[in-house]
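Researcher: Quick test of sequence recovery. Tokens follow.
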């Protein structure tokens, strides 16, 4: 710390530099600017738990990174040995450290700050004692995330479970490390994906073993990357390390400290039968990382969903409808004939995309159904009865609730007859979850016509470019939404026969994956 005639001191452990810690430090820097003083963050040379005889928590960042980040916030650091102050009374600490050592004119701390022998002093105690020395005290309130105060222990738990989304949200930036690059076996180079290897320092938090979408800083440039945390079982290795493939970079980084930031967990670490299988998986991981990073660069304010084969299984629902249909019109047929008719109904509906005007005449002809009811009755029955059967995809309701909880405007853009599609939404019990519901049968325009997408965005009050549409059909949903200037994610459901599917489109197999994108 440089010489100063006075300072504003930030007090705390600051072991994670999360959003709560930053609130305290920024309060100190702002007050220091007002008073034309130095902002100083008091750090400990080692975690206080060591002197107290407790198990030391895993480090979330190295000491060098901690100081660097504090300096970037506009503060200097002053390091003390906790063992030398742990037996000081509260009054002694204020007088000897804050007044005599740091020349404190003001101090900032968190709501749960403890100090003095045995941790007897609280933030309120600090305020009372400092007042007697003419020192102002600023106490920062807690910062919540998902209804609970942010803490380093919560962040450690998330990192150890591979939950980088929550960890990074609480940190206010991506969890990262900048360990020295060490020599490897150069297998990555043979696979066309040269990697950098880094070993974790002792007592540093180890993320869950697996593959992560990451970003790597080389010099002043940031590259998309894929990082494997683990022992590389395909190669028969046993030493745990971080191995990162930096996309678009080919250079020698041995002996240098390189910063790798983990963005999202992609998959668990696994052993492949051959290096060629591993090579193909690396390509898949890179594609997935590229998709995630591409989405990150865009702002999303509203999320729209198709319904059939995006939120519910059209096939599963149609099977239930077919069973009810046969119960109604063919109640006396044997089980074998019933199964044949069920299969034929599913086969001829063309995945649900065949019109009823084509569908029922085909069945009548196929079955030689002489005493069939009037055609209009069959049409009306389909529109009224099919919507009564809904089979939601796994996790659909949980994902919708989470998207809503995150504050996005939510909507439905669904093709189909009005009574049918609206009945489905009511059967599913999800209508009240959405801010906007646009059914083509109500609106009179059908996907992929961009006008139905334009109308949904207009009702949401959000520019098309800031809206994300999640659908399954490569033409009706994906091309339609893209044509309207929306962002898209394709749910890989349904059988689209010869319809072109653009492999460059971000594709998910499970709705849970959507939460990794937005």
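Model:
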């Amino acid at each position: 710390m440089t010489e100063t005639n006075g300072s504003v001191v930030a007090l705390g452990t600051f072991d994670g530099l999360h959003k709560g810690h930053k609130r305290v430090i920024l309060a100190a820097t702002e007050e220091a600017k007002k008073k034309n003083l130095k902002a100083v963050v008091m750090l400990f040379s080692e975690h206080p738990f060591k002197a107290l005889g407790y198990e030391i928590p895993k480090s979330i960042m190295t000491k060098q990174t901690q100081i660097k980040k504090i300096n970037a916030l506009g503060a200097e650091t002053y390091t003390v040995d906790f063992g030398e102050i742990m037996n000081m009374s509260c009054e002694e600490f204020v007088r000897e450290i804050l007044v005599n050592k740091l020349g404190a004119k003001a101090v900032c701390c968190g709501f749960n700050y403890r100090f003095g022998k045995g941790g007897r002093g609280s933030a309120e105690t600090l305020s009372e004692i400092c007042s007697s020395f003419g020192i102002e005290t600023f106490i920062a309130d807690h910062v919540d995330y998902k209804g609970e105060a942010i803490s380093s222990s919560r962040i450690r738990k998330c990192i150890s479970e591979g939950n980088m989304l929550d960890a990074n949200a609480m940190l206010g930036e991506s969890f990262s490390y900048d360990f020295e690059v060490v020599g490897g076996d150069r297998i990555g180079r043979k696979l066309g994906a040269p990697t950098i290897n880094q070993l974790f320092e002792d007592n540093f938090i180890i993320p869950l073993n697996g593959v992560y979408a990451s970003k790597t800083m080389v010099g002043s440039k940031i590259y998309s990357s894929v990082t494997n945390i683990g022992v590389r079982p395909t190669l028969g290795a046993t030493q745990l390390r971080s191995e990162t493939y930096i996309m678009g970079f080919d250079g020698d980084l041995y002996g240098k400290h390189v910063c790798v930031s983990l963005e999202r967990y992609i998959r668990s670490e696994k052993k492949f039968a051959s290096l060629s299988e591993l090579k193909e998986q690396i390509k898949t991981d890179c594609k997935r990382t590229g998709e995630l990073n591409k989405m990150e660069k865009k702002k999303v304010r509203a999320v729209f969903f198709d319904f059939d084969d995006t939120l519910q299984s059209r096939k599963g629902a149609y099977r239930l409808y077919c069973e009810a249909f046969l119960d109604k019109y063919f109640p006396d047929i044997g089980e074998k004939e019933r199964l044949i008719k069920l299969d034929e109904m599913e086969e001829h509906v063309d995945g649900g995309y065949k019109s009823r005007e084509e569908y029922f005449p085909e069945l009548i002809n196929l079955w030689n159904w002489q005493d069939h009811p009037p055609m209009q009755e069959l049409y009306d029955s389909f529109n009224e009865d099919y919507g009564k059967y809904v089979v939601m995809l796994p996790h659909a309701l949980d994902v919708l609730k989470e998207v809503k909880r995150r504050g996005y405007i939510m909507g439905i853009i669904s093709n189909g007859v009005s009574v049918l599609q609206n009945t489905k939404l009511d059967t599913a019990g999800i209508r009240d979850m959405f801010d906007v519901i646009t059914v083509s049968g109500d609106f009179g325009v059908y996907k992929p016509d961009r006008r139905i997408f334009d109308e949904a965005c207009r009702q949401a009050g959000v520019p098309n470019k800031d809206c994300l549409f999640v659908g399954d059909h490569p033409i009706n949903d994906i091309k339609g939404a893209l044509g309207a200037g929306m962002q898209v994610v394709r749910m890989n459901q349904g059988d689209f026969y010869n319809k072109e599917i653009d492999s460059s489109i971000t594709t998910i197999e499970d709705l849970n994956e959507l939460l990794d994108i937005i």
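The CA atoms of residues 235 and 271 lie 8 Å apart.
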